[in-house]
Write a structure and sequence with these properties.
By secondary structure, the protein is mostly helical. It has one domain. The chain has six helices and no strands. The radius of gyration is 14 Å and the shape is globular.
């Protein structure tokens, strides 16, 4: 599991190398915070128990909230690019791809309402 999550010395749920990657962006503090929320949610999908529907639903809810938060801090085109970029850099090893595929396969066919309002973590 450590291989999936990577080092996170400050315990914010974001791998240290992704924290540095986000810090290097010219984005605002609020935008960077939204990227960290999305990154942490993506990490959660890698370790979720895919045999438990409640756990899958919770992971999907956090992921949807993270995506919604990113879209609330960027224009639609930039948000789309940033979300795809965070997925790419978060799911960057064979083990992470396999775990993310298991998550997506387990969620396949499920339906959730889009989050409304401010879903950014305080």
């Amino acid at each position: 599991m450590d291989d999936l999550l990577g080092a996170d010395k400050d315990g914010n749920g974001v791998r240290d190398e992704l924290d540095a990657y986000i810090d290097a962006k010219p984005d605002t503090a609020a935008q960077k915070k939204s990227l960290r929320q999305l990154s942490a949610a993506l990490s959660g999908t890698l370790i979720v128990d895919t045999t438990r529907q409640a756990a899958l639903h919770e992971a999907a809810s956090r992921l949807n909230a993270g995506i919604n938060c990113v879209f609330s801090h960027y224009d639609a085109e930039t948000a789309t690019k940033r979300a795809a970029e965070m997925e790419k850099v978060s799911v960057d090893t064979r083990a992470r791809v396999d775990a993310y595929t298991r998550y997506n396969t387990a969620r396949s066919g499920s339906v959730m309402a889009l989050p409304e309002g401010d879903t950014c973590l305080k």
